[in-house]
Amino acid sequence: MRKMEEYIQVITTVESKRDAERIANALVEKHLAGCVQILGPIESTYWWEGRIERTEEWLCAIKSEKSLYNEVERAIKENHHYEIPEILAIPVIKGNKDYLEWLSKELKE
Questions:
Q1: % of the chain exceeding 90 in pLDDT
Q2: Predicted local distance difference test score (pLDDT) of residue 52
Q3: Which residue range is the domain that position 15 belongs to?
Q4: Which pTM value belongs to this model?
Q5: I need a surface site. Which of 22, 51, 61, 95 has the fewest CB within 10 A?
Q6: Cα(68)–Cα(71) distance, rounded to whole angstroms?
Q7: Crossing angle between the packed helical segments 17-29 and 69-78, to the nearest 10 degrees
Q8: What is the C-alpha separation between 62 and 38, in angstroms, rounded?
């Protein structure tokens, strides 16, 4: 099994469930993610062009490996409509060994 620090969860937000599904399908089909969970709708509050905005969005929680981050980011950008999409990688510091072994297997297919 790989070391824990080799696993990441990448998050991104999109404007619609359809956009989230498109990103999830692209990542899983290319074996860049073993699983993508879609959560929403959520409400986001943020600064954009000098104003506070409030928007309904959908969150994608992407399970992957650190070595695949650049490809994951590229695939998200190819399927994302935002000018500056949120794409954040969060390291896994602990996890279920069986789940992580499954994840590694799915990413190698």
A1: 94
A2: 98
A3: 4-108
A4: 0.94
A5: 51
A6: 5
A7: 140
A8: 9
